Amino acid sequence: MRETIWTRERKAAPARETLSREQIVATAMRLLDAEGVAGLSMRKLAAKLDAGATSLYWHVPTKDDLIDLLIDEVWGEIDVPEPDLAGWRSGALLFGHSLRSAVLRHPWLPEVMYTRPSVGPNAMKLGERGLVLFGAAGFSDQEVDLAMGSVMSYVLGTVSAEVATREMVRKSGSSEERWVSELLEQAEARSTDYPAMQQSVRRRIVTDLDTGLTNNFVFGLDALLDGLQTRVKK
Amino acid sequence: MRETIWTRERKAAPARETLSREQIVATAMRLLDAEGVAGLSMRKLAAKLDAGATSLYWHVPTKDDLIDLLIDEVWGEIDVPEPDLAGWRSGALLFGHSLRSAVLRHPWLPEVMYTRPSVGPNAMKLGERGLVLFGAAGFSDQEVDLAMGSVMSYVLGTVSAEVATREMVRKSGSSEERWVSELLEQAEARSTDYPAMQQSVRRRIVTDLDTGLTNNFVFGLDALLDGLQTRVKK
DNA sequence: GACGAACTCGTACGTTGTGCGAGTGGTTAG
DNA sequence: CTAACCACTCGCACAACGTACGAGTTCGTC
Predict the structure, then answer these.
(1) Hey, is the C-beta of A163 within 8 angstroms of any chain B C-beta?
(2) B157 touches chain A (CB under 8 A)
(3) Which of A202, A198, A200, A190 lies closest to B3 in space, CA to CA?
(4) Do B127 and A194 touch (CB under 8 A)?
(5) What is the model's pLDDT at position A3?
(6) Model's pTM, two decimal places?
(7) Is there a contact between A156 and B157 if contact means CB atoms under 8 Å apart?
(8) Domains in chain A, please, with CATH?
(9) How far apart are CA A22 and CA A71, in angstroms?
(10) With 60 as the cut, is the pLDDT of residue B163 above it?
């Protein structure tokens, strides 16, 4: 009888049970998301994989390189719509929101992304699709770059600040409302000389943190897109 | 919420020739500007002050607190014009440029600023003056916060990315043109599948790095301010 | 059974932030 | 003049880190 897939025993793939770069990256991602940059060490990561610390170095050259892989992984999670499926304006909005929520899912990103260039495959794909989207909007050749860069910078800048405050809340251990009210209290005590600041802090508390931050994000993104709209060539 | 370094009061008078917090901050600033975050260690800093490493800890509780002081020092360097001296639009432009150049002077800032809240005295002053400036523009009460936040986020986001590429050039050791052309070469090799990226990279080289980055910054800031302009209540 | 490739990992080195406690010089009270 | 006290300095030590090194183990292939 002829041998079938089922009778043939597996041989090619697994030599023995072994670490893999994918596995390392995935585990590191979980660790990083949960504990932040300070919580990721090669020893801890190895322990989570039931491996010796230095075993990782066979699969990944250095810790920095590992972080590069993780960053590119995040870029891979971001949607950039095709230009024909939506107008550029709503496409850009969608892109912005997708970028924001990816960073919120991986709040360690701002801490590391500004120290290295992003040239991984997912970063390239993201850039390509973004340029296509903005290109279809009718920007002039040079302005495609500028427009897309502005949007990315705005989004990353805003969400970086957003993540910073969210992490403060998380690390404080206390509840969100409690933290906000303590912030207010401290700011009021400190800022008697700064009436505008004081009002601002007070104003910020009428809604909960999450919708406040979202409004913040949307307001500026809308304004920026309005400004960009006037720059498309007719 | 954790107590920050500004809420704790300082002890009293010095007696003999002694280290001082100001001196430590100033020296740390120079070290950080010159060598970046990785180049600042308590031991190196102490050595520059001809002191023992642990002596610093009498003047500054932890390294993180020291960095908080340094960040606030940077906020203190930023100009925010009075609203009556210029229209809000040119005032906001001036503010944006001042913020940008401060970060360019202290390129380590993006690496650390997103990991902590800014509540030092200079941050407060900066916020206050900013709110006054934007308030005079005629934004509604809630939108003052939003508008100023958008501008800050855009500027910080843009300049953070800018600093990242500038630092890449600096650390590469080679000349600027050489670095740019190497980047191009690498990108072309890598991005045959990504025609829009490739064009974009090619386009970016027609001017030198510095004016390219400046144009980049100005373009987005102008667009954002245009968008905000339409939101001031009449 | 021998060989080489593909991995694993214990040990070790240098560097980091910082707690601890002993020391030192200056001012002040008795 | 001595003693107490404060403001300050600093050597030592520890735990944690990234990672170089080289010896060890498990394979598939002759």
Answers:
(1) yes
(2) yes
(3) A190
(4) yes
(5) 40
(6) 0.91
(7) yes
(8) 21-72 (1.10.10.60), 76-229 (1.10.357.10)
(9) 14
(10) yes
